[in-house]
Design brief:
Elements: E1 12-14, H1 25-32, E2 43-48, E3 60-64, E4 67-71, H2 79-92, E5 97-101, H3 106-117, E6 125-127, H4 134-143, E7 153-157, H5 159-171, E8 176-179, E9 183-188, E10 191-199, H6 203-216, E11 221-223, H7 229-236, E12 242-245, H8 248-251
Helix pairs in contact: 5-6
Length: 252
């Protein structure tokens, strides 16, 4: 199927889960502080689900072994309620907006994308469905052609799944892939704590994925462990569509 290309004016974006749902003055100041890294081309929102989600019961942040583990459950007020508040902020944003949608239900995901097609200043949509098995991959591949081509579709998958399924998802209409962070488990107060992992130890894997996607012609938003302008420049050598920044947005 035909698909829209993802074209950004500058090479950087933020990872979902780091700057909220719209670029506040504080966010914009933080982003401007990274201008020497190459500049930001879009703002990716935290994930929105169709129904509201609460903060995870075992939420938190843990630093260990040079990396940071984060678990939040991606709380949000639900798509419709959030859109009423956010659409004006998005329209006024100096950066194009890429809303992230975290919804397992295919029809609800389609409904949300259709609504976003009518909003101003939307550059693309980042789909972040929970995918645990082959049947879910097959269901998404069958459904994606119905999403049409009004907005570029970014699909968030693990690095392994991007390499295995990337070309097939491309043929179904996906414009780019954003690798989901690795997950792990650590001990916190003598209890197991699991979550998403970020930090410098993940940069070598990010570089390997960018190289392999470049070799295979898979459009990638590279991400993982980019904590300096030098690493951003090095990763850009593999010609990803963009480079996603995470922890430096918190640490300044």
């Amino acid at each position: 199927m035909n698909k829209r290309e993802l074209n950004l004016s500058h090479p950087l974006v933020n990872m979902p889960g780091f700057l909220g749902f719209s670029p506040s003055p504080y966010c914009l100041e933080t982003i401007r502080g990274l201008d020497d890294w190459g500049g930001f081309g879009a703002f990716i929102t935290d994930p929105l689900s169709w129904r509201s989600r609460s903060l995870a019961e075992n939420s938190g942040l843990l630093e260990a072994d040079g990396q940071v583990m984060i678990h939040t459950g991606f709380p949000n007020r639900g798509f419709r309620a959030a859109l009423k508040v956010l659409e004006r902020k998005w329209a006024r944003s100096p950066l194009p907006i890429i809303p992230s949608l975290m919804e397992a239900d295919l029809q609800l995901s389609l409904d949300m994308v259709r609504e976003l097609e009518t909003r101003e200043n939307i550059a693309a949509v980042n789909l972040m469905p929970p995918i645990d098995d082959l049947s879910e991959i097959q269901a998404w591949l069958a459904a994606l052609p119905a999403f049409g081509a009004e907005l570029p579709l970014i699909f968030s998958l693990s690095a392994d799944l991007i390499l295995i399924w990337g070309k097939v998802f491309q043929s179904a209409g996906v414009s780019a892939f954003l690798p989901t962070p690795a997950r792990g488990m650590l001990q916190r107060q003598a209890r197991p704590f699991s979550g998403r992992l970020y930090g410098a130890p993940h940069y070598p894997a990010a570089r390997r994925l960018a190289r392999e996607c470049a070799r295979r012609g898979i459009p990638l938003i590279a991400a993982g462990g980019v904590d300096s302008p030098e690493k951003a420049a090095e990763l850009a050598e593999d010609n990803p569509l963009a480079i996603a920044i995470d922890l430096p947005l918190w640490r300044g």
